[in-house]
Specification:
Elements lengths: L1 H4 L8 E3 L4 E3 L13 E2 L6 H10 L4 E3 L7 H13 L9 E3 L6
Parallel strand pairs: 3-4, 4-5
Antiparallel strand pairs: 1-2
Length: 99
């Protein structure tokens, strides 16, 4: 969960395995900004992602099932190219369909 949302946590508090990271102590999580913008069912995901970042959102939640990851990425790229945000300041969550 912590690495999925980009929460800050000390490296000694994370167990690394072959698949990902497992947090040992959730009480040590530092959440810089828990506010997340959802990318589901948008008419214009490129413009919406751009405007969300411009408005101050730094966490975007998406999924392959939404069908808008490419356009969302274009909005993110635009915000980065215009200097609104740096990539390392964004937390982008996506999900895979459970098959």
């Amino acid at each position: 969960y912590a690495s999925m949302f980009g929460d800050r946590i000390g490296t000694d508090d994370v167990k690394r395995d072959g698949v990902g990271q497992v947090v040992k102590d959730f009480a040590k999580l530092e959440v810089p900004d828990p506010l997340t913008f959802g990318m589901w069912r948008l008419d214009n995901p490129e413009e919406t992602a751009y405007n969300a970042i411009k408005a101050g959102y730094r966490r975007l939640d998406s999924a392959c099932d939404y069908g808008n990851e490419v356009l969302t990425g274009k909005g993110i790229r635009r915000a980065i190219e215009e200097g609104i945000v740096k990539r390392e300041d964004l937390y982008i969550t996506t999900k895979l369909w459970n098959t």
